[in-house]
Amino acid sequence: MGVVEKEMARTQKNKATEYHLGLLKAKLARYRAQLLEPASKSGPAGVGFDVQKSGDARVALIGFPSVGKSTLLSKTTHTASEVASYEFTTLTAIPGVIEYQGARIQLLDLPGIVEGASQGRGRGRQVVSTAKTADLILMMLDATKSEEQRRLLEIELDAVGIRLNKQKPDIVFKRRTTGGFNATVKLTHTDEKTIRTILAGYKLHNCDVMIREDITTDDFIDVLIGTRKYIPCLYVYNKIDAISLEQMDKLARSPNTVVISCEMGNLDYLIERMWAELDLVKVYTKKRGAHPDLSDPICLRKGATIENVCNGVHRSLAANFRYGLVWCGKSSKFSPHAQKVSLSHQVQDEDVVSMRLLTLNAVFTK
Ligand SMILES: Nc1nc2c(ncn2[C@@H]2O[C@H](COP(=O)(O)OP(=O)(O)OP(=O)(O)O)[C@@H](O)[C@H]2O)c(=O)[nH]1
Ligand SMILES: [K+]
Ligand SMILES: [Mg+2]
């Protein structure tokens, strides 16, 4: 235990010391953020595996050893990853590709992690750092083992700043202004004084804060630190061939959970659920006077703009952009007629997009 942790343990949790605790928490979070985000030269700690991101999204497999991560990769992609009954069979990151609905999803097999992974034991630190780069985490669990495994993994991911299945808390900061405080909802888990104390700890005396949901002190620190990653997670219980129907039924009813048996197959439902969680937007491109190319959509993250579409076609496109035309999709106000849009326009699933360019006055597709 470090000095700050010790002081926190000594400090009893009651109203009188809550402010002090908040300050200590902020201090500890700052130290750990420094420890976990070292400058790139200072060694491998906190750095993920050097695997190029490819395809439209990245899904990372996180779990204890021998839960069946490599078996899953081998069964759902064309990549083989060694499978064995002994622990730590996989020693590095192994990428495979799942092709689904016209999208290419990178599935990343990773070494098993153990308790303490985030504190730098073994390759664990590298694994949890890689998890930070994922668009979706598949937390793989052994259905025959105790529920404790899930909580332990959540602690490890939490320790590197990953927040699972959580939206970024709705807090807005404005520095170098008057120091106003505004909460649009009643705060029941924290209060202005605690938040002021934390801000003072960061020497942020002149800082406007606007809070728009009933946050906790931890939520506030997360947003203040700013390096947190809010990543969706599916809890995947494997090896259901080895448990009773009643046990399986109970697991399957939990939120964000899928039960599978890699051995028995039928992983289609898992892939459907992954797809739904990734929430990708598919956009079709169209040449002037031609039908849209429905065979080759561009897949983008939700919230993507016309600029992202341009970059998905060719990197020179955005620089020569005059305007875009959008048809049919849910974002087009004038469907079935085209809507004239700018680079910053957000596209929706199933939109058809055409670009008009400055130099060529022509149309591009992939
Ligand atoms: N009963 C059963 N066994 C399985 C299932 N899936 C995988 N296994 C077995 O579990 C063992 C471990 O599988 P791996 O795929 O190597 O597990 P891993 O999570 O990649 O393990 P590490 O790389 O060591 O972390 C192997 O003996 C697999 O055959 C399943 O659905 N049911
Ligand atoms: K194994
Ligand atoms: Mg493996």
TrEMBL record:
Residues 57-279 form the OBG-type G domain. Gene3D superfamilies: 3.10.20.30, 6.10.140.1070. Pfam families: MMR_HSR1, MMR_HSR1_Xtn, TGS. It comes from Mycena rosella (Pink bonnet). Signal peptide: none annotated. GO terms for molecular function: GTP binding; GTPase activity. GO terms for biological process: positive regulation of cellular response to amino acid starvation. This is P-loop containing nucleoside triphosphate hydrolase protein. Keywords: GTP-binding, Hydrolase, Nucleotide-binding. The lineage of its organism: Eukaryota, Fungi, Dikarya, Basidiomycota, Agaricomycotina. The keyword Hydrolase applies. It comes from the Eukaryota.
